[in-house]
Amino acid sequence: MRLTIRSLTWAVSSLLCAYQFKSVAGISSDESQKIISNDNNIPGNSPVAYCISPEKSILTINSVILTPSTPIPGQKLKIEATGDLSEDIIDGASVKVQAKVGYITLLTMTFDLCDEITKIGESCPLKKGTHNITREVDIPQYIPAGSYKVSADVESVDHKQITCLEATVEFQY
């Protein structure tokens, strides 16, 4: 689960930088896992959805594409995403990540956005405009059965909403 949480944090951070999203989770081809639909889903084939309207955010995500579209535990997942920043993001922005299984909170952590993106070779300020990323991540070999919800709330240093993302995936074995 830690890889999954760090994957979401990485995804949000990476989408904000000038690169051609850590996987939230996936579904397998045997349908033992499924994406829970949401009216705020981001275009593409991923379980990522907005927590709030993108009109109220600095970042609008245009698409998130997963390859394969049905990720398999123990294998790599390619993530391609594109989004638009309506203003520059400067040092001090934060990402609050929360992970739950059912009603049980597994983890709540806050990361410095600019520190996270330096881990992938980028730095703040992140300039206004369109950003594209392509990344590969490893899916954990074993993910315990359950309904997983991961959220990432991203704010600027002056507490403006950059974005708020969530994904819910159900693993049934």
From TrEMBL:
This is Phosphatidylglycerol/phosphatidylinositol transfer protein. The keyword Cytoplasm does not apply. Monomer. Residues 1-26 form the signal peptide. Pfam families: E1_DerP2_DerF2. Catalyzes the intermembrane transfer of phosphatidylglycerol and phosphatidylinositol. GO terms for biological process: intracellular sterol transport. Residues 48-169 form the MD-2-related lipid-recognition domain. GO terms for molecular function: sterol binding. Keywords: Lipid transport, Signal, Transport. Belongs to the NPC2 family. The keyword Hydrolase does not apply. SMART domains: ML (SM00737).
